[in-house]
Amino acid sequence: MYQSIKHWSSADQPREKLLHIGSKSLSEAELIAILMRNGTKNRSALDLAKELLAAHDHSLAAVAKLSIHEIVKIKGIGEAKAVTIAAALELGRRRATENAIQKSHISSSLDAYDLIHSGMRDLTREEFWIILLDRRSKVISVEEIHIGGMSAMVVDPKIIFQRALERKASSVILSHNHPSGTPSPSIEDIRLTEKVKLAGSYIDIKVIDHIIIGDGAYYSFADEGKL
């Protein structure tokens, strides 16, 4: 017989467990149940959370890639619950990037990849970011420039270097993801890199790399001798 979470013993209720034992003691399903707050007439929030995870191989990384439309395919998870879940996962991504920035000094393409891959790996559409560096190659900031298709016509060098000048950056690393999982550069990627590099040379801000993030791999223009 179905029984809502509020009628469970306090030791089994996810919120009570978090309050008295701490968040690390909870399963991923229990944490998601807390975000959803309540279930439906016949199913608890924990049941819904378990179904969401089971539908995606019990992988939090897979759930993090879902759109709102995909999350609400689970019967009982409406738009409000889906938005809350998506917001929490986005906060997790941003925290990971922020922590990386605070301790980052870029001396190789791997350093750049390590800085941004946690924020880019779950994206379902292409995004173009820049890493701004000071004269000692310490990270000043990581900034989103464009969301959507990659195009030399869409990604405007003026915006890139306006951000660089505002932050007093000495150099910049370009980066974008390939949701297909293959990091090999397209002709458009190559043209864009050349265009931005040339623009930077006029104002003495060097483009030191362009990192393309794929599925567990990356491509570096600098490593391949393309800069």
UniProtKB/TrEMBL annotation:
Its transmembrane ranges are: none
Q: Protein biosynthesis as a keyword?
A: no
The protein's name is DNA repair protein RadC
Q: Which GO terms describe its biological process?
A: proteolysis
* Gene coding for it: radC
Native organism: Candidatus Opimibacter skivensis
Q: Start and end of every MPN domain? A: 105-227
Q: Record's NCBIfam families?
A: PRK00024.1, radc
Q: Which UniProt keywords apply?
A: Hydrolase, Metal-binding, Metalloprotease, Protease, Zinc
* UniProt-recorded Gene Ontology molecular function terms: metal ion binding; metallopeptidase activity
The record lists the lineage as: Bacteria, Pseudomonadati, Bacteroidota, Saprospiria, Saprospirales
Family to which the UniProt record says this protein belongs: Belongs to the UPF0758 family.
- Tell me which InterPro entries the record gives: MPN, RadC_JAB, RuvA_2-like, UPF0758, UPF0758_CS, UPF0758_N
